[in-house]
Amino acid sequence: MAQTVDGKIAKSINDNSLNWTSLEDKKHFGEVTKQIGTVIMGSKTYEAMGQKALKNRKLIIMTSNPKKYETKEGVEFFTGTPEELVKNLESAGVDHVVLAGGARLNNSFMKDKLVDELLITVEPLIWGNGISIFEGEQIDAKLELIEIAKLNQDTLLLHYSVIK
Ligand SMILES: NC(=O)c1ccc[n+]([C@@H]2O[C@H](COP(=O)([O-])OP(=O)(O)OC[C@H]3O[C@@H](n4cnc5c(N)ncnc54)[C@H](OP(=O)(O)O)[C@@H]3O)[C@@H](O)[C@H]2O)c1
């Protein structure tokens, strides 16, 4: 996930612009997701990014209404709970997956304790309002810092693990 210094990932729910993230963040997202191979996304994020497949990666969209979307190579739709999806992936031999937002899907997985690590790019911006990385029911997660890296002169990459 990419966020501003004040913790926002989009100016509003319908804001689909990613022109505020650095080239280095986009490159990092591409590298990590290609290495891991499977990406989960909420339907609103999929819509915000123009319902596009991710080249060389399997994209799984969580939605209660899969019929709403065109079938597309490399894109699968899943209706069910985060726990059911993780169990399905485990039985299919998938041991790592990237959860790529948005705010509500992140919250559901975090609430169900299904997130092991966080990779957060912090871009040098402040918006004052907008949506946060996690939106929804209250969660109470504690993290441990694994690593901090500089992606460019002004952009940080924070890598945390979730204490379970
Ligand atoms: N900066 C970043 O790194 C970044 C990354 C990703 C997204 N974003 C931004 O985040 C915004 C979208 O976030 P969002 O919170 O509105 O939507 P979201 O999390 O992408 O999607 C939420 C939708 O997913 C479906 N869903 C299915 N199972 C779910 C479950 N267990 N928990 C939650 N949702 C479930 C529901 O829609 P159905 O009606 O289809 O069931 C729900 O309305 C966009 O503005 C996008 O640009 C930013």
Describe the structure.
With 164 residues, the chain is α/β, with parallel strands linked by helices. The protein is 24% helix and 29% strand. The chain has 4 helices and 10 strands. It has helices at residues 23-36, 43-48, 82-91, 103-111; strands at residues 2-4, 8-10, 38-42, 58-62, 75-78, 98-99, 117-123, 131-132, 142-150, 156-163. The strands form 3 sheets. Strands 1-7-10-9 form a 4-stranded mixed β-sheet, with no helix packed on it. A 4-stranded parallel β-sheet has the order 5-4-3-6. Strands 2-8 form a two-stranded antiparallel sheet. Strand 9 and strand 10 form a beta hairpin. The two termini are 21 Å apart. The model has no long low-confidence stretch (mean pLDDT 96). Bound molecules: NADP nicotinamide-adenine-dinucleotide phosphate. NADP nicotinamide-adenine-dinucleotide phosphate (NAP) binds next to strand 2, helix 2 and helix 4.
Widest beta sheet: strand line-up: 1-7-10-9
Total strands: 10
Tally of DSSP helical segments? 4
The major pleated sheet works out as: 4 strands, mixed
- Small molecules bound: NADP nicotinamide-adenine-dinucleotide phosphate
Distance between the termini: 21 Å
Q: Which descriptor suits the 3D outline? A: globular
- Mean pLDDT level: 96
Strand proportion: 25-35%
Key words describing this protein structure:
29% strand; 164 residues; binds NADP nicotinamide-adenine-dinucleotide phosphate
Summarize the structure.
With 164 residues, the protein is an alpha/beta fold. The protein is 24% helix and 29% strand.
Strand and helix map with partners:
Elements (H helix, E strand, L loop, with lengths): L1 E3 L3 E3 L12 H14 L1 E5 H6 L9 E5 L12 E4 L3 H10 L6 E2 L3 H9 L5 E7 L7 E2 L9 E9 L5 E8 L1
The structure holds NADP nicotinamide-adenine-dinucleotide phosphate.
NADP nicotinamide-adenine-dinucleotide phosphate (NAP) binds next to strand 2, helix 2 and helix 4.
